[in-house]
Every structure is written in structure tokens, then in C-alpha cells.
Write a structure and sequence with these properties.
90 residues, elongated, 49% helix, mainly alpha
């Protein structure tokens, strides 16, 4: 019988060996957990109508944006969205 890591219904059939230490809180391996969490995050963002934009900036610009966002009591992401909205509304 083949074992699939994402199969949650038959995973207990293969849990014969006892391991010392703290028990797992999630039956999936870490890489599967990360994939599942990312997929759920993308779905949540899509339902909220959000789109992902990714770009690279220098460390100086990154630091300046972080400081400005902190002064404005906003997250860096929200601050960048605010700046872009201001520029586009001109």
C-alpha cells in the first residue's frame, strides 16, 4: 500500500513506530505544511481582492521605507500601497 504525505485519513495506519520526545502537532512534514499554508494565504488574499507585487530595492531604500512606515504607524506593505496610491492619484 502506498503512503501519501497529504493523506490525512490513513496516516494513522503507518504510525506504528514510537519516537521519543515531543509528539508531532501536525501529521504533515514541514515542507508540506509550508506549501499548504502558502496556498491558503494566496486563497485568502485572492478573496480579499489583493494582488501580489514583488520587487527588489537597495538596503538604504529598504531601511528608509521601514523607518517612514514606523513613523506613520503603518506596516511597510501598507505604507508602500499608500505611497503608490498617492502617486497614481496625481
Amino acid at each position: 500500500m502506498a503512503k501519501i504525505a497529504t493523506d490525512r485519513t490513513t496516516i494513522d495506519l503507518f504510525a506504528q513506530d514510537k519516537r521519543p520526545g515531543r509528539p508531532k502537532t501536525n501529521v504533515l512534514p514541514r515542507d508540506e505544511q509550508l506549501k499548504l499554508n502558502k496556498r491558503n494565504q494566496v486563497k485568502r488574499d485572492r478573496n480579499k481582492g489583493l494582488k501580489r507585487i514583488e520587487f527588489k530595492v537597495s538596503e538604504q531604500l529598504y531601511t528608509a521605507l521601514s523607518e517612514q512606515a514606523e513613523q506613520a504607524k503603518m506596516t511597510r506593505s501598507a505604507y508602500l500601497e499608500h505611497i503608490l496610491a498617492q502617486v497614481l492619484s496625481r
